[in-house]
């Protein structure tokens, strides 16, 4: 059995070292935001998470954990049958949930019992996001920004596209948001991404 706990800052530096990044949170949590390149293997799906959370608050934590464990075990078994059967012995996944606790812990325990070297994000997505914000604060003073501004229709987007073609680093906020500014609105046929 090989289960490693890694701090969020170290995970940020080593994301490329893992064969898979597994988000064990529900579909809605994953859809709202997730680690770069993560795939979603819900330990509890949306409805189950609500049901178990309600039971936890309204009845008691022990009853919720028993029922949650049964649902999680079924879901983890389905993920193994669907995604893991073909994985080689040296496959090394990284797993996380909201706080790095029961959902990703349960999944990681089973994967490590199979014989995979599993790494768990200490503190989960919440800690990763906090570490990312701290990292941004440390990096920003070292960067040099040039802001392109002007009235609607003045060619700002064309300028950004031309600069990008020449190899410049460009951050086109409207393109990232699938939006053409407050005046022109959403890009027809394209949904705006989550955060």
Walk me through the structure.
The longest helix is centred in the middle third of the chain and has 24 residues, at 61-84. The chain folds into two domains: 2-135, Oxidized Rhodanese, domain 1 (3-Layer(aba) Sandwich), CATH 3.40.250.10; 144-184, no CATH class. By secondary structure, it is an alpha/beta fold. Helix 2 (27-32) links the parallel strand 2 (20-23) and strand 3. Helix 1 crosses helix 6 and helix 3 (46-58) runs antiparallel to helix 4 (61-84). The protein is elongated, with a radius of gyration of 21 Å. The protein is built from nine helices and five strands. Strands 1-5-4-2-3 form a five-stranded parallel β-sheet. Helix content is 50%, strand content 10%. It has helices at residues 8-14, 27-32, 46-58, 61-84, 102-114, 124-139, 156-165, 173-177, 181-184; strands at 2-6, 20-23, 39-40, 93-96, 117-121.
């Amino acid at each position: 059995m090989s289960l490693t706990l890694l701090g969020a800052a170290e995970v940020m530096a080593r994301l490329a070292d893992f064969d898979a990044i597994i988000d064990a949170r529900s579909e809605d949590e994953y859809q709202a935001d997730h680690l770069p390149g993560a795939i979603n293997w819900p330990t509890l799906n949306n409805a189950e998470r609500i049901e178990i959370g309600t039971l936890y608050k309204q009845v008691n934590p022990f009853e919720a954990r028993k029922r949650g464990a049964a649902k999680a075990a079924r879901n983890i078994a389905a993920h193994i049958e669907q995604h893991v059967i073909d994985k080689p012995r040296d496959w090394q996944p990284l797993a996380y949930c909201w706080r790095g606790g029961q959902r990703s812990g349960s999944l990681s325990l089973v994967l490590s019992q199979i014989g995979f070297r599993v790494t768990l994000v200490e503190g989960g997505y919440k800690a990763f996001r906090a570490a990312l914000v701290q990292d941004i604060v440390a990096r920003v003073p070292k960067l040099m920004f040039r802001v392109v501004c002007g009235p609607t229709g003045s060619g700002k987007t064309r300028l950004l596209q031309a600069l990008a073609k020449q190899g410049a680093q460009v951050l086109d906020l409207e393109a990232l948001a699938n939006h053409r500014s407050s005046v022109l609105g959403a890009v027809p046929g394209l949904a705006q991404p989550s955060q």
